[in-house]
Amino acid sequence: MMRGRSDGGQKKRLIASFCAVALLLCLVYMYYGSSNQGASALEYGRSLRKLGSSYLGGDDDDNNGDNKQDGSVTSEEDSLAVAKSFPVCDDRHSEIIPCLDRNFIYQSRLKLDLSLMEHYERHCPPPERKFNCLIPPPSGYKVPIKWPKSRDEVWQANIPHTHLAKEKSDQNWMMLNFSNDVLNDEGRLRTVLDVGCGVASFGAYLLSSDIIAMSLAPNDVHQNQIQFALERGIPAYLGVLGTKRLPYPSRSFELAHCSRCRIDWLQRDGILLLELDRVLRPGGYFAYSSPEAYAQDEEDLRIWKEMSALVERMCWRIAAKRNQTVVWQKPLSNDCYLEREPGTQPPLCRSDADPDAVYGVSMEACITPYSKHDHKTKGSGLAPWPARMTSPPPRLADFGYSTHMFEKDTELWKQQVDSYWNLMSSKVKANTVRNIMDMKAHMGSFAAALKDKDVWVMNVVSPDGPNTLKLIYDRGLIGTNHNWCEAFSTYPRTYDLLHAWTVFSDIRSKGCSAEDLLIEMDRILRPTGFVIIRDKESVVESIKKYMKALHWEVVASEKVTTGSELDQESEDGERNVVFIVQKKLWLTSESLRDTE
C-alpha cells in the first residue's frame, strides 16, 4: 500500500514537471511568435499592382536576391535597416484624423460635456493605439485639380460628399464698405478668421482682394467640409470654439466672421465672444450674420438684446448693420476698459496672464487688455499689406530679436527657397503645388519667400519653444501651434508640400518616434506631393530606410555648404542635408477595381 502510494506520488510529480516544461515552451513560443507577427505586420494586407504609368503598388525594383520576408534585422544592422513595407489601413480609415477620431472617443468612454463641444476638441490616442499603417486613398481617387481651376471644381471621388457644394453655394456675404471702396482697406485688412466656415466660400471670395482667411470649422455633422475647402486650395483648419483657446495668439486678425451663425455667444458669461475678442487686433471687426440680428420673435429679440448689452460692456460699437448682418468694432485702446464702472462684467484678465499661451490652455471669461505699445499707438502699428510681410513687426521686441536679425532671416530663407525650387525644377511647374505647410516656421520667412508664387502656407510653431506665431500673423501670414509628437488636425491628403527644417531632430530630443511622424506626414501629404527635409546628415540617413516602405521617391539630396545660422554644425562637425522626396500615387486592389 505504501509503495503503491509512493509510485502514485512519483507519477504526479512527473506529470507536474511535464506540465511546467510544456507551459514554459508555450510562453517562449508566444514571445517569439508575437515578435515574428510584429515583423510580418510590416507586410501589406492587400495586393497592390501597377496600371499604365500610375503607381499602384510597391516599388518595382527587386530585392537583389534578398529572400528576407520582413524588415527584421540584427541589432548591429539597425542603423542600416531598410523597412520593406508598412501595412495599409482599412478602407474605412481613408478619412481618419487620429486626434479627432470619434470612434476612439466612443471606445475610450471619455467623459466629455457635449454642450461645451468637448467631443469636437482634440483627444489623441495613447502610443499603443496609434495608427502604424498607411492611409489608403478612397475608391476612384485622382490627383487633385490644379489651382485656380480647383477653386470651382474638384473630383467627386476625392470628396465623397457632394451635398456640401449644393448646401453652401448659396451663401451671401456682406462686408464693410470702406470709404475708398477697396475691400482690404488699402492693405490694412489682411488676416481674417472665418468661424463655422462651411466650405470656405467666404475665404475663397476674399483671396482676390489680397485678404487671407483662416477658415475654421469642427469635424461635425457637416463632415469633410474642411477637406472640401482644402481640396479646393483654400486655407482651412479643423477647430472649434469649445473649452480650449483657439490655437492663435492674441491680436492676430483684423476681422472675425460668422455667417448663419448658430453659436450660443451668451453661454458661460460670453466666454466664446471673449475668445474672439482676444484674437482680434485693436480696432478689429466682428461680422455676425444670424436671425437674432433681424428677426422679431420673442426669443430672438431676447438674445439680440442680451448680446447687444454684452458687447457694449466689452466696449464694442456697431460699425454697420444691414438686414441680417451686424458688424461690431473693437476699441483701439484701453481707454474704454478703464472708464467702466467697478465690478462691470466681464472683468479684465489678470495682468500676469499670458494672452498668447494657447496650446491646451482653457478659455477665460475676461477681456484681454492691450499691451502698453498698442494702447499708446492706438492700434497694432502694422504696415499695410504687402509691405507688412517684410516690415519688422513691433512684437519682435517680445523675443529680444532685432530688426537686423529679422531682415537677415528673411534674406536667408529667400535664398534657401530659391535653392529648393532649383533642386525640384524638373518636377515642379507654376501650378504644381498650392497647399504648403512649414512644419517649423519660426518667424515665417520660408512662407514670405514664396510671396510671388500662387500658393498659401500653413505656418506651424511648436508650443515648446518661443511662441513666434504672433510674428507670423503680424507679417500678414497665417498658422497654428502644434506639437509634432501628435497628429495634425487635418484630413488625409490635404497638402502638396511639407517643409521640415530640423523637425526630426526636435522630436528625437523629445523622445518621440520618427517613424510615427513619417506616417503622419504621409497621411496629410497628397499623392504626387513633395517633402523637403532639412536636417542633420545622420537623421536624414535614418529616414532614407523608410523610402520604399512609404513609396516616396527621392528627388534630390544635397549637403548644405552654407555656414548660415540655419545650418550650424553640431559638436561633432556634422552638417545638415537637404533631402527632397515625392510621394507616389498608389491604390489598394479594392480601389483599383472601382477605377476600372
UniProtKB/TrEMBL annotation:
Superkingdom assignment: Eukaryota
InterPro entries: Put_SAM_MeTrfase, SAM-dependent_MTases_sf
E.C. number: 2.1.1.-
Ranges for region Disordered: 55-79
Membrane topology summary: Single-pass membrane protein; Single-pass type II membrane protein
Keyword Transferase: yes
Keywords: Glycoprotein, Membrane, Methyltransferase, Signal-anchor, Transferase, Transmembrane, Transmembrane helix
Cellular localisation: Endomembrane system; Membrane
Similarity comment: Belongs to the methyltransferase superfamily.
Record-given protein name: Methyltransferase
